């Protein structure tokens, strides 16, 4: 992956819904992506823990961008399916996610994500693991008519 593609992906990661949530790209390499989100009060559930929907969205979106590193601008990535296991309550100052593609197919790209809860001192606890199945689709097939 060249520097221009890496810069594009790092910038493209945060838009629309993910920008609203505060997601930030941290690193991108071929088949890998890392991200974070600060745990603001709006992202917590009633007991002060990260909402499961936020954890799942971070795992899914980061896996999608890990897959996106493997295709060119003529393709996009869509999630076909994902499964997530919540291992510990996600409490802390932020979430950190690392995702990697585990098999590089022409159309289907399975990936795995790990999400850690990060406290104010930077200590991490593994909070969730996800398996995400992603599909490569032609960019042109996603064009919406005005």
UniProtKB/TrEMBL annotation:
NCBIfam families: unchar_dom_1 (TIGR00369)
Similarity comment: family membership: Belongs to the YigI thioesterase family.
Enzyme class: hydrolase
Catalytic activity: a medium-chain fatty acyl-CoA + H2O = a medium-chain fatty acid + CoA + H(+); a long-chain fatty acyl-CoA + H2O = a long-chain fatty acid + CoA + H(+); a fatty acyl-CoA + H2O = a fatty acid + CoA + H(+)
Domain Thioesterase stretches: 48-117
Keywords: Hydrolase
The organism of origin for this protein: Desulfarculus baarsii (strain ATCC 33931 / DSM 2075 / LMG 7858 / VKM B-1802 / 2st14)
InterPro entries per UniProt: HotDog_dom_sf (IPR029069), PAAI_dom (IPR003736), Thioestr_dom (IPR006683)
GO terms of molecular function: fatty acyl-CoA hydrolase activity
Coiled-coil regions listed: none
E.C. designation(s): 3.1.2.20
Name of the protein this chain belongs to: Medium/long-chain acyl-CoA thioesterase YigI
Keyword Hydrolase: yes
């Amino acid at each position: 992956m060249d520097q221009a593609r890496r810069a594009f992906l790092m910038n493209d990661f945060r838009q629309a819904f993910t920008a609203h949530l505060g997601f930030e790209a941290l690193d991108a390499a071929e088949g890998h992506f890392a991200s974070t989100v600060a745990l603001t009060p709006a992202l917590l559930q009633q007991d002060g823990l990260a909402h499961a929907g936020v954890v799942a969205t971070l795992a899914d979106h980061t896996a999608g961008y890990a897959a996106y590193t493997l295709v060119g601008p003529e393709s996009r990535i869509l999630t076909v399916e994902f499964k997530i296991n919540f291992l510990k309550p996600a409490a802390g100052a932020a979430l950190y996610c690392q995702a990697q593609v585990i098999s590089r197919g022409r159309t289907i790209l399975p990936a795995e994500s790990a999400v850690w809860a990060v406290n104010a001192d930077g200590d991490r606890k593994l909070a969730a693991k996800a398996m995400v199945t992603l599909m490569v689709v032609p960019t042109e097939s996603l064009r919406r008519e005005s």
